[in-house]
User: Fold these one by one.
Assistant:
Number 1:
Amino acid sequence: MSIFVAKVKDHSGKVFKEKIEAASAEQARLVLKNRYVAVGKIDKSGFEIDLSALELALAKVTVKDKAVFSRQFSVMVNAGVAIIRALGILADQAPNAKLKRALLAISAEVQQGTSLSDAMSKHPECFNDLYVYMVEAGEAGGVLDEVLMRLSTLLEDMAALQNEIKSAMAYPVTVGIFALLAFLGMTIFLIPVFGGIFESLGAELPLLTRTMLTISDILRSWKVLIPIVGFTVISFLLRTYYKTPWGRLQIDGFMLKMPLFGDLNEKIAVARFCRVFGTLTRSGVPVLQCFDIVCNTIGNQVIVNAVMNAKADIQQGGMISLAIQKENVFPPLAIQMISIGEETGELDGMMEKVADFYEDEVQQAVKALTSMLEPIMMVGIAFMVGTILLSMYLPMFSIFDQLA
């Protein structure tokens, strides 16, 4: 993407220069023609290209960015604003450089006759399959504004759940970091001072003190690189193993069986499945296609495999609840509620109710987990500091005995 400068004339007859980011001068002209009465000569601005490229490389389209865009886009479409013009207006005010570039490109492609969903599909870094298929369903049914509003609600719910988990875990993570820094500071700077005093007095050091002095020596020498390199290598191997089908299945299976966190991970996956599936079916996306889209949002391979196996049963005429029940990964309550939704013909509404229930369960589980972690971390910090202080004071007793 480059920055272009063009002379334009607005509806009041005023002539001025307008800057625009686009892939080419032709694309810039197409976008500007939709905004202004006349567009003159277009030149490339050489000074700002590097800054734009740097900003673009650092930008990341968040769930919140897409939620805000979807809600604003829905309101404008519902108000009768042409899609091309709405995209241009939203691109101008988009705070995210990557989203801004995508909207400008999409606007130019739609102006050339491409459908909105096809244009969005060319920008997967901003609009994933879930977004594209819902927009496609909205275009086909003539209810694009309603679908965009559902998308914004869906994305806002997903963002709220993520923020709930992040905010709940912020305290224990912060305490853990400060505890680690305190341990390193006391071990690297405090223990050697006491070690020098004990050595000058010729005191006999107990095992705990010798152990802490050894740890201090390791942290202050090149040997500290050994655990760092070892941790880096293990992390790299785990990431590489996770990229393999078997490794991903094994690690995700372990994530569902972890003490304390396993039940939480299962509830998050179930809530996400039901929320996305309910929104898709309510927007008019075919059920079998919903399964393919949902699999990209679940985030756990064990549950993804179960959903795909259930899809195979449904293709043969089975019910969704029975197909999912056979896989034995969804909670019984969720299966019963989905079954009721199928029997009453309100599957999309029941899916969203299941999602609401399990999102509340996730919030309560996170609060319970953090309330449990806080005293554990306090005890751990007290044990750590107590161990360091005890290792420093134990030799003093033998010194006092020698003086006596």
Number 2:
Amino acid sequence: MGYLSVLRSPQVARLLSGTLTGRLPAGMTAIAIALALRAAGAGYALVGLTSPAYAVSAAVGGPVLGRLVDRLGQPRVLLGSAVVASLGYVLLALAPGTAAVALAGAALAGLCMPPLEPCLRALWPDIVAEQELETAYALDSASQQILYVAGPLLVAGVAAVGSPVTALWLAAGFGLVGTLVVATAPAARTWRAPAPVGGGGAAGRGRGWLGPLRSRGLVLLLLAFVGTGWSVGGQNILFVAYAQARPSLPGGGGTLLALAALAGLLGALAYGAVRWTAPTATRTWAMAAGMAVSYLPLLALPGPLGMAGAAALSGLGLAPLLAAAFLLIAELAPEGTVTEAFAWLVTLFSTGTALGSATAGTVVDSSLRGAALVACGGIVLAAVLLFAARGLLARESTAASGLGDTRRREPAEAPAAVQPAA
């Protein structure tokens, strides 16, 4: 088995490419908003409000849309949210210098960002063989690294040859096209979250108002990803500040960020190429510990060449940790809540990233090493939490596996086994 085998599975190339296209606006929006507003004469105060309005709205909207997908199926929620999100980008493009319109557009674009990531992760068990599921999640994790390199580069290129506003129009178009490709795929049209069964176990409690958060193991896993995101956010600020303090670094902070992203891609590919025998819960805390260790060289604040190596090393651990966590979330989420569970991961990771960036930003002017401590602290705490919760995670994961094969359908059986979404 391997990546080529996964990519040759029916619908995989279509769903993966559609998801990446539809998710490209997420990698474009922050810089596109800033450039478009500044080009329209808006002050930094408005930029400082509009970008967080997008991020906060996305954090709120993700779990809500995920729950709607679990209740209504994928096509209607994906297409409806894509249309509204595109309207938000259109508002931003039409009047970027008007505060009320810009804020409303950013809030709409974030709140209704189509939940393509959670939907794809809910589909993987239906479109690849069980023995390839780990590789599929690793491929998913690796592909996400591309977005946050390609998105800013695309905006910069468009702004250089045209206008930043054009990037907002492109974001609207990419979101619609990518979502349409995914929502009309047979796997998405036939997918439906399994109905919760009776009883008091994890499978029978999924559709309460807490949804997937009824699983204690899942809550602890998600909290760990607040710390993981915290480290990523702190690292971003550290790299920018380090580059300003060391102007001899070629390419500045962008070089360090690109090295970390490239290493993350390689790390995910390596993780997916291995046939793991350890339980998913064990792999997850072990990958978190590995990521924590990979961040520690940042504390040394070496010279430019050494920092480039430290940046690459720090990037190796994130994507494998995400790949392991994707599979563990699928195991821990109560029946009928898997899409919402994946949406919570996106939300809490993004929240952690914002908190880590803000915290590092408050200390970096007085202490570059303080920002490095912020970057390392989040993932260290996450690894400690996952290690402490390893028994609970293993028990809940094992209990979910013992429920039978109701959570998973073989690809060849999916069209017959799943009723069309209502």
Number 3:
Amino acid sequence: MGAGLSEGRRIRAGIGVLVLAGVLLLLWPAFDWAVTSAYWAGQGPQACPDRAGACWPFIRERFDQIIYGAYPAGERWRVNTGLGIGALLLVPLILLPLRRKAVWVAGFLLLYPLAALALFAGGVFGLVPVGTSAWGGLFLTVVVGLFAFTAAFPMGILLALGRESPIPVVRMLAGSWVEFWRGVPTLVVLFVAVIMLPLFLPVEREIDKLARALVALSILMACYIGESIRGALRSVPRGQYESARALGMGYWRAHIHVILPQAIRVATPQITNIVIGLFKETSLLVVIGLSDLLGVVQAASGDTEWHLSSARATGYLFIALLYWGICFAMSRYSAYLERRARRGWAGGGSAGLGGEA
């Protein structure tokens, strides 16, 4: 029996070596183009005389455009400040236990978007106005993902409660709304919001293109978040509902203080996956004329000075690495939340606000 197991291990090891060798053979040409044969030094298109390797001087020269789009150089401190504040607000949301996050969540969802919008758009407190047509690059991608999530999360909670409502009419309306939007492709929704919606509005009324895209993405994301929270609501033990009623809690009080904290904890890994999907789908904004990360790279590499080099391919590789890095970080955080939630359930931490996630 030991000899059989040893033979099985040798076979698996051999298969693993063959698979690894195959992967290396497939990846080596890409690695050679991106690293070994790449051009790293120099300035301008003359630094990349042919297409034999990646043109990293293009990324260095267009880095500010890739990050900020056409946002005025003298006002980019507002972007750095706004996103920095958002990152600082996320730290307590990541580190604090669930029962201590209520104030931070409320501030992040309600106050931060308004403050960030005032900072980015300007026109108040002496800030120079900067139209959304100048927003672009990684900055626009992060803003769209962040604002869509902050708008979609409370809507998703309401949709989940609506689908689980004891009132048949509310349950039917919430279910119809979710099923309709989940059945429509994201690109179609964006086209309707950005291109077709103005056809039904008065000529004198114009809604900002970015605002329309944010509303469309928020509606779609709310439906997916609502379904994940609805599934988590059904996973909460029935005894939690009965205990809340025994303590004299009504429907809303029981859900706010006992049921929803547990459901959101369970649904958090899946919600994180939805956020990752939304972040990647922001690349569709280029189709409707917004200069997101993909659109900025296309515009920068379309410059006639760079058309003979491998600038465009290098730009696509760079934004692919950016997307991968950000999404990988979010996926690792999702895995961490899942492990913590599992420990909470295993340790009996499902007693509403009395237990920590």
Number 4:
Amino acid sequence: MFLQILFTLSFLFSSSNALDFCVGDLNAPQGPAGYSCKKTEEVTVNDFIFSGFRAAGNTSNLVKLAITLASSTIFPGLNGLGISVSRIDFDVGGLGLMHTHPEATEILVVIQGTICAGFISSTNKVYIKTLEEGDVMVFPQGLMHFLTNVGESQALAFASYSSASPGVYFMDYAWFANDLPTDMLQETTFLDPDQIKKLKGLLGGTD
């Protein structure tokens, strides 16, 4: 009996791992679990390669920062593996606005420059640190966090996420890049109406 149970369990575990990968079929609809698998005979080595990090991103924008994300939507080999990665380029003064990844924990690795980074816990405790080249920081899933280049030259970092599609939610854009009425924002944030209108104008929102 014991041998029969052992054999059954080993069969179940080996069967669950029978599929080595599930390269996403980007032409198919994306569901909650990701894309359906491309036919094995159609999979090539290029499905497991992403070359989008070779060049720096364009930091000529309001926040002087560029994020190049390799997620399952453009890197089909990541589909179903629960991981993704991004390249983050900072110009001098570059700022990663306060944001969260609802679907993933993030690990940041500083490659070049000096970056100040931090996050806020659910009890409103702030964890903040100035990071140098080679330093690594983790941002737990769902917590608000930020990044800023505090050095005198450009900075570069790479971040990995515990999801093939981590999602992102920017607090400033959620408040000021929409048509939520100014009086409602004033009541719910205690901000001055003139400041709200200024930020709406800056980020593309309307009154």
